[in-house]
Structures are given as C-alpha cells and as structure tokens.
Amino acid sequence: MTTLDEHTVRHVAKLARLKLSDEEVRAFQEQLTAIMDHFALLDEVDTTGVEPTAHALAIDNVLRDDVVQAPLPTEQTLRNTPARHGDHFQVPKVLNQESS
Amino acid sequence: MVDAQIAVRPIIGLEIHVQLLTRSKMFCGCPVRFDDPPNSLVCPVCMGLPGALPVINRRAVELTILTGLAFGGTIATHTKWDRKSYYYPDLPKNYQISQFDLPLVSNGHLDVDVGHGEHRVRIRRAHLEEDAGKNVHDVGGHTLVDLNRAGTPLLEIVTEPDLRSAEEACALCTGLHRLVTYLGVSEGNMKKGQMRFEPNVNVAIEHDGVEYRTPISEIKNLNSFRAARDAIDFEIDRQVAAWHEDHSYVLGSAPNENRGFDADRGVTEFQRDKEAAQDYRYFPDPDLVPVNVSDAMLNEIRQSLPELPDARTARWVKDHSLSVEDAATVVGHRATADLFDAVISAGGPPAIVIKQFVNVWLSHAKQRGVTIGDLGIDPERMAELAQIVADGTISKTAADRVAEIMLARNRFDAGTEDASDTVTPSVARTLPTTKANNAARCPSPLALAKELRLLQVRDTAATDVWIDEVFAANEQAVQDAMTNPKKRKAAAGFLRGQVMKKSQGKADPKLVGELIDKRLTGSA
Ligand SMILES: [Zn+2]
Questions:
Q1: Structural domain of residue A12, as residue ranges?
Q2: Contacts by B261-265 with C-beta closer than 8 Å and gap 24+?
Q3: Domain annotation covers residue A39
Q4: How many domains does chain A have?
Q5: What is the ipTM of this complex?
C-alpha cells in the first residue's frame, strides 16, 4: 500500500491550481491513496517480453494532407463564450504569462 | 569589474522555435496566416472543444525530417505525441501537444564560424509541437484572446550548451535561419515571429585554480538575432558581476532562473526561480497515434534534400573556378543559386555570369525589392548576355545598359500579371521560377545591343578619335599621367574611363588601354 504523503497532495493541488483546506488535504490524501492502490494492481501483471506502448490502439501513421479547410465563421466560434470584446474572447486578466 | 586572476568562460545552449511553412495548421485544416481578423482562422480542434479530434499534418512531419537530415540528425523510426500541461487561455485545451521522450529528430550538428575557424555545435533534439494563440493583455482589466495562431506547426530545435559567446550563439541563429529558408521549410520572417530564440546561459569562472559555475538562466522568447546577442551579452556580464558580489552565486546554492529581456533598456529581468518550475506532467496524447517513419518515407524525403550551400560552394569553386567570396553572394538564396546553375547550364561563362549576378542582376533585384528570379529574365538570356561580353561583342559597361533595357522591355511587355509567389510552399520539389511565357517576351541581348548600337568598336581609327577628344578635354590628367610617377596610374585609369564613357561603352577596353598607353609613353 502506497500512502500519498501530505506534501505530494499539496503539490498536486498546486499544479492543478486548487486551494485546499487542511481538512481537504487529509480527505484527498485518503481518497488518492485508494485510487493509487487500485491502479497498483497493474504492477502485478507480468510484462516480461512485452514491448512498451504509448497507445491502446494497434494503429499508427494517421496523417492528413496539408490541405486547408474552411474555418468556422467567427460568429460561430464566439457563440458560446460568456464574454467577448469585439471578435476576441475576453477572459480574466492573465498575470505573469510565460511562453510555451 | 573583472580582476586579472579570473578567467570567464560562457556556456550557452539554445532552444529555437521555427514556424514551419505549411498551408494548414498542425492538427486541423485551418489556414496558417498572419494578420487576419481575430478568431477568423479557428475550428473546434484548435479551439480545444471537447470531442474534437486532432489529425497530424503530414507536411509538417516531412519538413521536420528534411530539416533533421540537413543538420545531420538521426530520424526516429518510432515517434509519439505528448500532452504538456499549459495554463494560459491562448491554448484553451489546457495542454500543448508536443513530443516529449521520442522526438522526431535527435542528435545532429551545425557549424558556426565567427572568424576563428569552424566550431561544431551539437544539436540534442528537434521535435514538432503546436504554437499558442495570442493574448492581448490589459484591455480594460481583462485579457483578450485571439486563437488564429493556435495550432500553427512549430519545430523546436534544442542545442547542447556548446556555444562559447553571444557572437557564436547569434551565428548559430542566423545559420539556422539560412538553412530553414534555403530548405523552404520556413519563411523565416522574423517580424512575424516565425523564429524565436531561448538561450540558456551560465558562466564558468576560474579563480585561483578553482572553477565556479553560476546558475543557469533561461532567457525567454527573443524574436530577433540582435535581441539574442544583446540578451546573452548582458546576461554573461550580469552573472559575473553577481558572482563577484557574492561567491555563493553558484549552481546548487542559488536557483536557476527564467529571465525576460527588455530590448529597450537592454537588460534581462528576473521572472521566476526554476525551483518553482511547473511540473509539465507530460503524458502520451490518447487522441493521436504514433508515427512510424518507414525507410520508404525517409528515402523519399532524403531524395528531396537539395544540395546544401556548403557543398554547392565547393562545387562552384572546383568546377567553375569561382572564388568563395563570389560564390557566397549567390549561394545563400536557393532560387538564386538554382538560377545561377541554370545560367551556367545554358552556356554562360561562369566568371562573367557571377560578376553579372552580383553587379547587375542582384543590384536590379535589390532596387525592386525582389530576388533575381523574380526579375523574369530567363536563364538562356542571362547566359547570352554573359557570352557576348566574353567574346568581346559588347563591353561590360554596354552589358549593364543592355540588362537595363532587357528589364524595361520585359516589364513593359509582361505587364503586371506575374506578381509571382516569392515563397514556394513545397519542399525541394520546386525548381527556379523561370516563367516559360517570359522566354518569348524577353528580348535577345545581342539583338538589343545591335539595336542600341552598343556593339563593341574595335576600330583603331574610331577609337583614336574618342581618345583625341578626351585628351583635349583633360590636359591636366594627361600631364599627370606622362610626368608624375605618383599619379600616373590613377590618371591613366581616369583617361581610360573617360574614353569608355565617351564611346558610350562601345569602345573595346583592351584596345583603348593599348592606344592610351602608347600615347602616354610617347611611342605613338
Ligand atoms: Zn483549426
């Protein structure tokens, strides 16, 4: 049984931009530990000689030709946005953005 | 600031983003264009709507492999796609599709030369990913998002920290720019942000036999060669100064940093500690299946790899006896270099063709803000113009005049219809852009020379008349040439030039020289 320590839970919460109370940290520690344990069942499978894979499907090379297709009309693109400014999406102010 | 006992050795690596020249985006069919109205080049895939499925653009994969081959990289036979966590609204999926542990290209190298011989820079990897859109900050306390650029294919190239100065780093950036534009894999338009640089910089400081290494700074998102050079230079000085101030400013004791560059003030500024770096939590993208590069695919792309500038220069030097300097003026631009080869194939004498390329065609092209190929003169005509100079039918000066008329007539006759595409979107398969229909319109240089009465006059009597007139009008120069040893050479040269001018370029320069020399030495 792998018990997730409190530090890991707080780290994951931070990465997910979640603010947790101490109580919630304890609750998630328990729940996440249970989830991790469940997946740990997979460790019991003997994978000797099985090639690692990154995908569940036995297919590869699904490629498309470099052909342009019509984009959506801007009105349709913006239709469901809760806030817009001209033809821009309007979102809460982004702080300290770093490039991708 | 730097005392005598220390030696400073900069250690620099680069991450370079190159926008690939595709028509459509990386994972959807939206067009890749610049400056369109906001959110007009968007679909459910690049908007990140739930349920939309990305499909890989084959061309982007091919362009990446082509670039990898050109810098001597190893092409992966098996590669996959990963999601990299991302938290800003300019990529609304909440992740960026990239390649983590199985990049399309690994290893490779580029050579830089900043005046003390070639230095090899190893390339660690090159992978494909998608660009983000654009956030417009601070509009009425909000951020505005334009997703037109979201999903544009980017090639990210990562070097080993083999660069030893800002100058070398800058040379690598410009060299890579030359390569990708030559290959036609990118337009390389810096103003449109099609190439962006992120240097990693630290310094090894040797002090009393001990080496100290400063923490590594990553300078984010530089979009010009100059910014790259200036930012690195500043950063080297800053780190050395920081170490002088506090000797605990070393790797391990002080954190690595991300820094931004303020081009107006020429300084880098702290953004955040790398210790607080986000965990990107890469994991395989379940929406995209792996790409296996077959031998057949690899061979086909290898076939399309053009002769690269270095090899081409070597060939020209060997086969056509060009100087490296002359070759360099033409070889860097692929269509121009292709045209040069075509003119030689059409029978143009290389020594004269290269001079005409540099002195005549290139300068006309520059005046018009286009490339030589865009001038619309076909290679046969260019070859003919060089031939009639080589066989003495017309002089070099007359050739300049003929070229001008060729262009004028060509333009006049051709009208404005061929506002040609200066960029060819396809890889390697495109040969120089000689428009077949121009061949008929472009006047023959020989016919033009006849029409304009520019045929060289090798008639001694006629030449003597021009010389008489020039000598009469320039007595001082004649005096200098005959009596003043210091001025003799310059004065004689001046007189020859005047005679050529008087003859409107028709006189045979060799004959003019002989006749003038005879008179000056009194042997006439
Ligand atoms: Zn799209």
A1: 1-44
A2: B261/B219, B261/B220, B261/B222, B261/B227, B261/B230, B261/B231, B261/B234, B263/B224, B263/B227, B263/B230
A3: yes
A4: 1
A5: 0.88
